[in-house]
Predict the structure.
Amino acid sequence: MTASHHASEIAGPQNTAGTPDAPGAPGPRSALGRRPLGSLSVSPLSLGGNVFGWTADEATSFAVLDAYVAGGGNFIDTADAYSYWVPGNKGGESETVIGNWLASRGNRSEVVIATKVGALPDYKGLSPATIKAAVDASLTRLRTDYIDLYYTHYDDESVEVPELLTALDDLVRAGKVREIAASNISAQRLEESLACSAREGLARYVALQPHYNLVSRDTYEGELAEVAARHDLAAVPYYALASGFLTGKYRPGSTVDSARTGKAAGYLETDRGHRVLQALDTVATAHAAEPATIALAWLAAQPTVAAPIASARTVEQLPALLALGDVTLTEAELKLLNEASA
């Protein structure tokens, strides 16, 4: 898996009626129902920032961020590595766009900013010196003096757990980071980390960012999810829409213009992919909703999940994502989706 692990979670084209900037649209919605994440309070949809400075330029990114906040969202996810893999980019582009937006809108205290350390080639791994340098670089790009949620992007097993947690604890004590979290970590190392925090009185992971969606359940369910449940960690799944596949726009014979078409189209070649699309269509029809909304609502209904992450390249793609807060699936619908995705 590449550092671009939040593959563009792109919703299909939507009607903009009812979005905050559509002509004649209603005013901003009240805040989507907030969920606790450590000491933080987050909306049930985390907006993926991987596309900012990649497939969305700064002006478009600002429009997406404005519409997300106007629609009740407050939880923005990025990483220092986004998007170094793009020719001409060096990493930090997404953080820079978000920092410029925060500065221009003057709304830093109203949003929860999550970013990550460890995958950017210039700051690779999780040695204490790397973490210390990387967090300062992220703070500079984000144009803020604190990060709400700081993830280790990929675990670095060459660093002993106490050494790693002490480095993260130093950031919390310095006021540079409010809460810490982990992504791409084994159940064993996660358990070991939580035990170390308790034993040594160090900052403790409050969240976990796993790869998890309707066509990739075994990447989280099982041992990792059990550790999260046992220790009351909030799960914030990435690839929530399976690189756009769960928007329903990839169908046999269809052609989609997206930076992630190859990966998403691959799911069409599996029986599970077909079953899941059929189940999503059934449930989406019952709710007069988009398949993407239902796929996110299924995730949000899973034990430990606080907020799935999904990205939008354009404002038009946001309504289906924000509608997550309006949909409650029935037991029968959850059963249908569970069976289709098994």
